[in-house]
Amino acid sequence: MAVDTFEAHAFSVEVATQCGVNAAIVFNHIHFWIKANQSKKKNFHDGKFWMYQSITEMSEHFPYLTSKQITAALTKLVSFDLICKGNYNKAKYDRTTWYALNTAETFISPHGQMDFTSRANGIALQGKPIPDNNKDNEPYKNNIVRFEEFWKQYPKKVGKGLARKKYLMALKTVSHKHIMKGLARYSPDPHFICLPATWLNQERWDDQLTPSQQFTNRAERGDSGEITGAVARFKNRRATQQ
Question: Does pTM top 0.70 for this prediction?
Answer without folding.
Answer: no
